[in-house]
Design goal:
Length: 175
């Protein structure tokens, strides 16, 4: 859980000036970072287990990590009015331990945050409901990391299916 806690602090610090940053957006950033890392490196950054919630994917360990950071005096929750609702923002009170991340991991985090700058949690939640990993699961079910390889439903043309069948046949002969 150490990497999850440190990533939460890092993301919170990078997003502190983003007026759209709140709990839902934090969950989506963590989800995308971990799933993109899995697709690129074969493992997630945090090792968290993500599950299907009404507002989209979130780490199961989020509340435990958040509560630990608050108890340690390393983070706090700020609440503020936001379009008629209450936005809950995890605020880093100290910097993350950057030594536990690789340069590639840090670059990936920054890239995801950059792409999501200015997009609110509600819009990100709605977008996440279009992704196969969320559609693949039901309420409170774990979202398998391998579903990142099918983020969107992309129709396969007939010639792609034929090619795939030939490849499978040739692999079967080679085995």
């Amino acid at each position: 859980m150490k990497k999850l806690k440190e990533l939460i602090l890092f993301v919170s610090d990078l997003c502190k000036d983003d007026s759209e940053y709140g709990a839902t957006k934090l969950n989506k950033i963590l989800f995308l970072v971990d799933f993109f890392a899995y697709s690129a490196y074969g493992k997630s950054i945090t090792g968290a287990t993500y599950f299907h919630l009404a507002n989209g994917p979130a780490p199961k360990e989020m509340l435990r990590a958040q509560n630990a950071l608050i108890a340690e005096g390393r983070a706090d929750i700020n609440e503020r009015p936001y379009f008629g609702r209450t936005q809950k923002r995890l605020v880093a009170l100290e910097g993350a331990d950057m030594s536990i991340f690789t340069a590639d991991e840090l670059a990936l985090v920054k890239d995801v945050i950059c792409h999501l700058r200015g997009i609110g949690g509600k819009r990100l939640s709605e977008w996440s409901h279009e992704l196969i990993p969320w559609l693949y699961t039901r309420d409170k079910e774990d979202i398998p990391y391998y579903t990142v390889f099918d983020l969107y439903s992309v129709p396969v043309r007939r010639d792609g299916i034929v090619w795939g069948q030939k490849e499978l046949e040739s692999l079967g002969k080679a085995a």
